[in-house]
Write a structure and sequence with these properties.
The complex is a heterodimer of chains A (126) and B (261). Chain A is of the alpha/beta class. Chain A has helices spanning 35-52, 68-86, 102-112; strands at 5-6, 14-18, 23-30, 57-66, 91-98, 119-124. Chain B is α+β, with helices and mostly antiparallel strands and 261 residues long. The chains are: A alpha/beta (126), B alpha+beta (261).
Chain lengths: 126, 261
């Protein structure tokens, strides 16, 4: 399965996947003109990985600002993970935030609310 | 229902009775009864099929309602999170604006803020044909304080002087750190003489600042150059004249002000 390597731009985060490690990493700000276009490859990759790999998946997020459609996309991704978790898959989200900006942590808490899989919100000195 | 059962029972008894054998009505009744039974069976089937359709319809309705509720909840959540991101951005913007116009050490305006206000006040003074006065302030022998007591003491001097300037200006005046140990006061609606009154009080307040560094009292004073903008003059020329007046104040013994010619 091919890995995704999407470089960040000023308005989009970098998205990197690692099939061997079972990780997806997103880093940066996200206010793309077309969130669907940006996030659907990642969603497809996650769905395929969960269907094929039979191994745990970890999502490492270093996201700062998300516009509304990116918020929707992240919720869709978490829905996919929740479904996999309900079906017995091992999925984890690590949401890292800069300790200078506690409000990102509060926002991550909002996302976490409906998720029953392990969802860690961790401060990190960037 | 009980009547039906009763009727059926009666008919079945009549048909089974051997006494009725050969009665022409018996044959007709038998045929009619068979027809009746078959219709009853058909109605029963139709009812069952119709019930199933109804229950499929109801399930569909329920699943659509469920999905609708889920989408609604999701939408509310998206809006909530998105609102919070926006308010976070707004606050960050405020903080950035603050940082970009304030001097980090003294908390009064920085050069950028002064430049913006100089531009605005110049335009206003031209429009209303009102006077505008600019004052440059320089800390006397600041380098000596820094050399003798270190940068921390120097920073403290700058903060104390910034406070004295801020406390001394009139309501509509603006003050800021122009750079290094130099401050600027923008005085809208003020002629040079009006400015001089404010400046003189400020000079005295600064000279009275009591500061101790390394156990020794540190004498603090500042010199001032005052320039009233000439009509139509480019503001940078006004600043140059204030600077020249400041130079005169220094040359004439410091701890004093001079008004630009």
């Amino acid at each position: 399965m091919d890995n995704l390597i999407i470089e960040s731009t000023q308005s989009t985060p970098s998205i990197m996947t690692d099939y061997r490690e079972g990780t997806v990493e997103m880093r940066g700000d996200s206010y793309p003109e077309n969130s669907f276009e940006l996030f659907s490859p990642a969603m497809r990759w996650i769905e395929e990985y969960l269907a094929q790999a039979g191994r745990p998946l970890t999502l490492n997020l270093h996201l700062l600002y998300l516009n509304t459609s990116s918020v929707k996309a992240m919720m869709d991704i978490f829905d996919i993970l929740e479904e996999a978790h309900q079906a017995g898959g091992r999925v984890t989200v690590n949401w890292y935030y800069d300790e200078q900006n506690e409000r990102v942590a509060e926002l991550a808490e909002e996302f976490k609310e409906d998720c029953s899989f392990p969802f860690h919100i961790t401060s990190q000195v960037e | 229902m009980r009547d039906e059962k009763h009727l059926e029972l009666m008919i079945e008894t009549l048909l089974a009775d051997p006494e009725n054998e050969g009665n022409p009505l018996r044959y007709a009744l038998e045929e009619l009864y068979a027809e009746y039974r078959s219709l009853l069976h058909q109605i029963d089937r139709i009812m069952r099929i119709s019930d199933r359709y109804q229950s499929v319809g109801r399930e569909q309705k329920e699943s659509i309602a469920g999905r609708y509720q889920k989408q609604l909840r999701q939408l509310e959540k998206i809006a909530r999170i998105s609102d919070r991101y926006q308010s976070m951005m707004r606050d960050l913007n405020e903080a950035l604006k603050d940082a970009s116009t304030k001097d980090a050490l003294t908390g009064i305006g920085n050069r950028r803020m002064l430049m913006e206000h100089l531009k605005a006040e110049t335009a206003r003074a031209d429009r209303l044909e009102h006077p505008l006065t600019v004052v440059l302030v320089d800390v006397d022998r600041f380098k000596a304080v820094n050399d003798a007591y270190g940068h921390e003491a120097g920073d403290k001097v700058l903060m104390r002087i910034a406070n004295a300037i801020r406390d001394g200006v009139r309501d509509y005046d603006l003050c800021g750190r122009w750079g290094g140990e130099e401050f600027m006061i923008i005085m809208p609606e003020a002629a040079a003489d009006d400015g001089a009154h404010v400046v003189e009080r400020m000079r005295l307040a600064i000279a009275e600042i009591e500061m101790i560094a390394d156990g020794e009292p540190v004498r603090i004073s500042a010199s001032f150059g005052i320039a009233q903008r000439r009509r139509g003059e480019h503001i940078s020329d006004t600043i140059n004249r204030a600077d020249a007046a400041l130079f005169d104040a220094k040359r004439n013994g410091r701890n004093r002000f001079e008004i630009a010619a």
